[in-house]
């Protein structure tokens, strides 16, 4: 059995190791410093927060309000756009943290700084933050310096041993995905997966209108369907992977409604209006026809209150399932086969030897067991037998998070036929 936390972090794994194979030849990297950093972070977490994780509480909880939720955007945390040499990337939530100095303004961030900012500013659960940051460092960062980049590549701490880390910009189809919230599909935009595509943002913006506009979870679930449909209809190389598509891109849509909403005293349950939506995506303009995207200018609004409850890995799971139940097509695994509107969904029974199928995918933990099996199936080929670094990180996460998360009891999937994905050019070429 493996933890939900380990699984969710594996959303980055299989195709990422293909993109960065040279990392995996460093088999003797000592992760004791990472272990100590995780221990140090966990030691500073309030006991009541860890108790909530143990109880497996989800977002079905009472909305509360406290002035302590107000996020400081003054002084050292005043907004400043990136300057020359500072990197920003595909994730608006990470960009705002750098633009306000909660992340290093360079865009290259340490483990401790990352976890601290994600939990204190956005109220990401400590379990989610540790899992995702640890894997970001292992796959697209520098495991010696314990750093990673929210955007482009940066120099390695030991150039003769470790290659130049690629950052999130280089992780398309590994972590960042086709059919994302506002960024473009790689094939359609010459590899630019970090810029907002204004037409996509306008489609989201138009889903609400007037002074009462509120971009709720239901609105973002509709947008999830729309972005998926657009990629099917326009991108001949659209590929929707078990990890980067089904899990990461779907979760990213849900994140917008939860993390960017203003949870004020008047609206403790959260309210995301058009002004704040534009601010978090670096958009200016008063009407839909005058909207302009300004690269790297994502900003936390004044008088903005974070969500009252940490967004745990259990919440990630729950809201992904809600999205798929509302629009079952976004739960398909597959892609276009070289022409638009040619989407072929892989038969999950053929893929898993009949253990997981379309009828039982959404039952219990099966959707995550399925993705875990996909990761395991891809490891021997992807890693060419060199598994020490990633395996050690995987085991480390299991050990550190085990006391705080429920284990997954998964059915045994003894075969996983990854060759079924070879029919999709978006799988074989990106």
What does this structure look like?
This protein has 430 residues and is mostly helical. It contains 16 helices and seven strands. It has helices spanning 4-9, 13-19, 32-43, 47-54, 92-99, 111-120, 126-140, 198-205, 217-234, 244-259, 274-281, 313-326, 348-352, 366-383, 388-401, 425-428; strands at residues 108-110, 147-149, 239-240, 283-284, 292-293, 334-335, 344-345. Strands 3-6-7 form a three-stranded antiparallel β-sheet. It has a two-stranded antiparallel sheet with strand order 1-2. Helix 2 (13-19) packs parallel to helix 14, helix 6 (111-120) runs antiparallel to helix 7 (126-140) and helix 7 (126-140) packs antiparallel against helix 15. It is globular.
State the name of the first-level CATH class. Answer: Mainly Alpha
What's the total helix number?
Answer: 16
Structural class: mainly alpha
Main pleated-sheet profile: 3 strands, antiparallel
Structural domains: how many:
1
| Shape, per Cα inertia axes | globular
Write the H/E string, N to C: HHHHHEHHEHHEHHEEHEEHHHH
Helix content: 25-40%
CATH superfamily: Chloroperoxidase-like
Biggest sheet strand line-up: 3-6-7
Intertermini distance: 31 Å
